[in-house]
Design goal:
With 448 residues, the chain is mainly α. The protein has 20 helices and no strands. Helix 1 runs parallel beside helix 7 (132-157), helix 6 runs antiparallel to helix 7 and helix 13 (243-276) runs antiparallel to helix 14 (282-304). The longest helix has 34 residues, at 243-276. The two termini are 30 Å apart.
Amino acid sequence: MANKSSLKSTIAVSLTNYLDAGAIVAGASGLTLWQNYLGLTEVHLGWLNFISANCLGAALGAIIGGFLADKYGRKFIYTYNLLVYMLGVLLVMCSVNFPMLLAGFLVTGISVGIGVPASWTYISESSEINNRGRNICISQMSWGVGPMIILLLGMFFAPGGYLFSWVESLAAAIGGAGLAVDAVNVFSSRVVFFSLFVVAFIAWNMQRKLEESNEWKASKETAKAKGEDTGLIHAFKVLFSNKTAIKTVCFLAAIYLTWNLVASVMGFFQPHIYETAGGVSNEQANWMNCIQWAIIVGTTFVVSGLIDKTNHKLLYIIGLVFALSAWIVVVGVGVNGPVGLWSFVVLWGIEGGISVQVFYALWGTELFPAKFRAGAQGFMFFVVRGLSAVWGLVFTYIYGENGEGFTIAAYCMIALLVISLIVGVIGCPSTRGKSLDQITKERYGEEY
């Protein structure tokens, strides 16, 4: 069990993950509503995914936030970043055209990217040796709780939902009684984004009160005593002048990229895919997605009690076996019937609780010294989410307007997951039960 201070700070920082996943799913769950309201095409949807918290926006934010966290401290990020997030969400809430919606998704995405490297780093640095994996899992659980709650809100406020009458009243009060049906319907998505604004405000008040990371302070004091340059450009040079660091970046980027190319598409387009390829209604699609996130949260909870006591390579393999099984179902059975669709929901849900992202978040904080720990993660996140943004655009063309290319896309997903499995098994590090300082000295010597 993590001690009280470690657990408290983990929960506060984990709200960043809630807001990250929440922003992605809030956009996804209301995608059809925005599409109808603004007359968007599949290409428009691809661009929204391209610059969102799912891809490019987060990529740009991560490379900025990672090096800022190493330069000015983890607390610096928590003092200001969520103010940017609230601005982005506010833009989406008030959108009346596609450029405004696009700008809101971009600003929100940048904020998400800034916060992610700092959050994983801070959690790892403030954890006890035997609770580091568990605390990372807690942060991953919030990545599941966020979508689950956002999807529930989306369903309750959606047209035909239990609380839609309240949405209609709100729309009439703000826009007048003469609003078109699509303009009224999209207010349900505006309300969902408002809930993210409220959570972001609460999280900002919690995070700005956190103490600075002791690991970061010690690293800065050491650098100051040696008279070392602590500038952002120097940190980048140091990262890419160390052979161990370069190998580590390649390993982590490889396992995370191949997995994230699959997960990013599912995170943004999943309800839309269930509707078009699976042939279910918007409400049914959101219920299925919500159930899947509940499975993810439950599985992550189980893994949180095992990860600090169990062989990491074994857990990694099990997670990817479930991931591959889910996509093999798509190819073998298809998702246009209840058996295939529900099998995919359950298998991909279990995979989500023991996903590559759990190990990427853990290893990404363990395998680099404090000097450029957040910066390295920020760079990798930039590469991964940036390429995921390009893949999201490509996917819309492979998938087609009505899901006619879904089977071809599934074969692509299987190939990517196989690569993630092979690279992860070959390069799996032995870090369990070791302090961050011990891991750093084993990998980089006394210099860091």
